[in-house]
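Holo model, iron/sulfur cluster. Inputs:
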Amino acid sequence: MQPQDGVTVAEHPEALELRAESVGERWHSGAAGVSVRRMERIGITALVPPEVVYACGCSALDLNNLVPESRLVPGDKLCAWSAVWRELVLRREVEIDGLVVVAGGDCYTSLVDAQRIELAGVRAHHFIYPFSGDRRFMREQVEALAEFLGEPEEGVMDEVAELKAMAMQVHRMRARGEVGSEQGFRIEVSASDLMGSPERYREALAALEEAEVSWEHRIALLGVPPIYSDFHALLQEMGMQVVFDEMPYEFIRHTGRSMAEVARSYAGYTFALHIRRRLEFLRKQLRRHRVEAAVHFHQYACHHRLEDPLLRGLCEELGIPYLSVEADLPGRTPEQVRLRLEAFAERLSEGWA
Ligand code: SF4
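Output:
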């Protein structure tokens, strides 16, 4: 996921700091020497309802958003996603005031990397998705999250819900080819943290320009978002428009205007549920989006890699050509993967005999 100001972190490490400072505000002394509460910046390790984070007067930073543009090579890693953000925080290249760790419905790799941050002195809270989709359990989790962050003001949730409705509109435009694959992806994937503030996200939505995208194939991107910063642009260059992006779609699909609604909605986050629920959801979405081919993106050392045969089976059942891509470190798409994508696009153009 990209830095939202378009400046790459690797080229300008100070950009990360500036962004951190502009978003993260804390207690400070007002004119009369009275402490005034400013927004605390909360790092999140996976999907955590931004509705609750902002309603509690904090700002969200999805740590994953910093990874694809980073050139940091962590020495001690399994999955590069969590190892890179762990190092960014431990080296204080990014400042956070607190951490919300998704401890259920995510992976042990990120859980351990987050615990290393916690042990280094960052206060942390563990947020758990119910494997069964139990709404009562989800409600308890959402309330515990609010307790960690502060008193929620439900009015703020209306604003977040409205922004997500606008992001859903962008999703539809992308599916019609009225927005480029990469531009649409940036908006959808940033729904996880609203780019650090609802205002900034609203500005990004307003700045989005309509385009007439020429493409040959309607593609679904399944699994974790690509760790390669140019992946969507590359697909588009090859005539493959991503009309369904699984994770970003999940980020914009879930919302709510009250704690109860948020709990109900996020209990259906299929990435955290039994795989049967996710497969049912994907079956419906692949048909609904009239997807012609699917690319499954997964990471070295990630347990989701084991889902590859199940997703392939689903696509075979639907008659959808399927390509599996495994990545490791962030950066631009390696030549070998580029060649495989080109061959895939060519076969699609030839009618996938
Ligand atoms: S890609 Fe897999 S291993 Fe890496 S952080 Fe995400 S879920 Fe965990």
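The first strand starts at residue 28 and ends at 29. The two ends are 35 Å apart (CA to CA).
Archived with the compound record.
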